[in-house]
Structures are given as C-alpha cells and as structure tokens.
Structure to design on (244 residues):
C-alpha cells in the first residue's frame, strides 16, 4: 500500500495531522497531550521503581493511560482513518489494475483443454465432531482441512503413499490430532499451537504456549524415499505423531 502512496498525498496527510495537533493545543488547552505527558511521567517513575509492587502498578497505569490518551488525540484519529481509507482505495485499484499474463502461442502450439475430474477428499470441513480415516484399506489423497471442535485421527498404515511427497495440512480450533505413520516413511512435522502439548516421534513438548515447533526425520531430504509432510495448527489441543 505505502509503495503506491504518492509524495503529495503523504505530504497532505502529514500537514493535516500537524494542523489538527496544533488545533488541539491551541483550542483545547492541550487536550490529551497533557494527559499523555502525565502518563509518560508515570511510566518513567514506575520503570525506575519496577522492582517494587507500587512501581509495577504505576508503570502499567501509565502505559494504559498513555494508550488511551494517544488514541483520543484528533491527529492520531485522523491518521488512523486516513490509513483505513488509503487501504480501501489501494485494494480497489489493485482489483481493477490486476496484471494478466498470457503467453503468445502460435496456432500449432495451442493445446486442447485439460480434462479435469472431481476427486473426493478423505476428510470434510467439519465444525463439530470427530473424524478418522477408514479402518480398511483406502486410496491416499492429500489432506487439507480446517475444523472447529473434535478429534482428528489419520492412520497411514491402511494406504499406499505416493512416490512424491504426501501432505497433511490441518487447521483446527479445539481438539486432538493423532497421526499414525509407517516405519518406512520419512516425516517432516511443523506444528503451531496456542495451548496444548505435542508428542512427535518420541519428542515431547508438554507446555506449548503460542509456539511453533518443527521436526523431521534424518533421511527426509532423500527424495528417493517415501515421505510425508505434516503441517498442523491448533488453538487448544494435543497432537501425537507416532510410528505404527
């Protein structure tokens, strides 16, 4: 957005912001500026005495007060509204000015349209309830789902993985994820969680708090071996990936 912002437009925004700042000082006796300075003093004093309880209280009162004071300034409100308006204008222009790249093909080079068939997914996007792969043998298809509440269980011992990289991508809110992987398959795991635990091929992270973790087996980068890439995201829940 800011790359497309012209110098003239930026100058006008800054000029209007400065004018509003001066008006607030001249006609409203400083307005929120005095409050902001006072809160700044509280932050300074609280920081100096942060090792004491009253210092912590004064510091955080100053921080909260400073945030409210700054957001209530005319100039800051104007800048926030200006940023939102510019974002909307820029997005509208980008939709109208989308660049289409089309190769110039001769008549002999033109190809027939591809034949496309629908492929049924292993899992459906489901807000509530548990889901798991079939107990009997099934044909493998990459998994790319998001869900709400419930558990997800994927057993790879009942399918034949492709020669290239198989992918499991799950984004979930609350629930547990269990993935069972055969011993002869190499694995790469990237998991992020707000609250939960992870048990990944013998590695245990029992307190995940807004963290991302990654593991991969030793020979995962060997493209001659079957491998699977697992990407998961949970708000709250546990994940377990183990051999079977």
């Amino acid at each position: 957005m800011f790359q497309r912002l012209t110098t003239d437009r930026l100058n006008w925004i800054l000029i209007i912001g400065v004018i509003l700042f001066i008006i607030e000082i001249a006609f409203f006796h400083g307005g929120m500026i005095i409050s902001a300075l006072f809160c700044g003093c509280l932050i300074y004093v609280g920081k100096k005495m942060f090792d004491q309880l009253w210092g912590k209280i004064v510091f955080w009162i100053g921080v909260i007060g400073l945030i409210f004071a700054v957001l209530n300034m005319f100039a800051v409100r104007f800048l926030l509204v200006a940023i939102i308006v510019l974002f909307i204008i820029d997005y509208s222009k980008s939709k109208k000015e989308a660049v289409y790249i089309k190769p110039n093909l001769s008549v002999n080079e033109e190809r027939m349209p591809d034949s496309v068939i629908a492929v049924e997914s292993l899992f459906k996007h489901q807000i509530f309830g548990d889901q798991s792969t079939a107990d009997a043998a099934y044909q493998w298809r990459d998994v790319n789902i998001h869900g709400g509440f419930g558990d997800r269980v994927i057993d790879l011992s009942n399918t034949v993985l492709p020669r290239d990289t198989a992918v499991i991508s799950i984004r979930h809110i609350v629930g547990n994820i269990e993935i069972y992987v055969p011993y002869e398959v190499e694995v790469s795991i990237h998991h992020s969680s707000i609250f939960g635990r992870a048990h990944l091929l013998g590695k245990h992270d029992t307190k995940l708090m807004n963290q991302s973790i990654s593991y991969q087996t030793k020979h995962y980068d060997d493209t001659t071996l079957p491998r699977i890439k697992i990407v998961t995201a949970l708000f709250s829940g546990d994940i377990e990936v183990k051999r079977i």
Observations:
- Residues 74-96 form the longest helix (23 residues).
- The longest strand covers residues 186-200.
- The chain is about 35% helix and 30% strand.
